[in-house]
Hints:
Elements lengths: L1 E11 L4 E18 L2 E11 L2 E2 L5 H15 L2 H10 L2 E4 L9 E4 L2
Amino acid sequence: MSRYDFCHTIQDEKLGIGVVYDLECEVELSVELDAGVPMISVDAVYVGGKNLFDGSALTKSIAAEIANAAENDEALKALAVSDEGFTYRGLGGNDPDGRFVRAL
Length: 104
């Protein structure tokens, strides 16, 4: 598990406005293979050194919003997959023998 800096704006979809702008935090990510594809999951969201998942209902809700955004951020996902040592071995995306492997 590694920590990464992450910045996210929390929006109210119903109202169509931003509620919390550019919330700077750290997300703790883990990477696992799921059916041969690396998937990231957010294990913790830190603001000021505190894990928001350990707080009140409001901070847990904020942590869940940030975690969802982080898991869908392609640049962050690529960085975490690379940092954890996963590489693709194959002749391209359509190679039936292509797969991700982890270099230890």
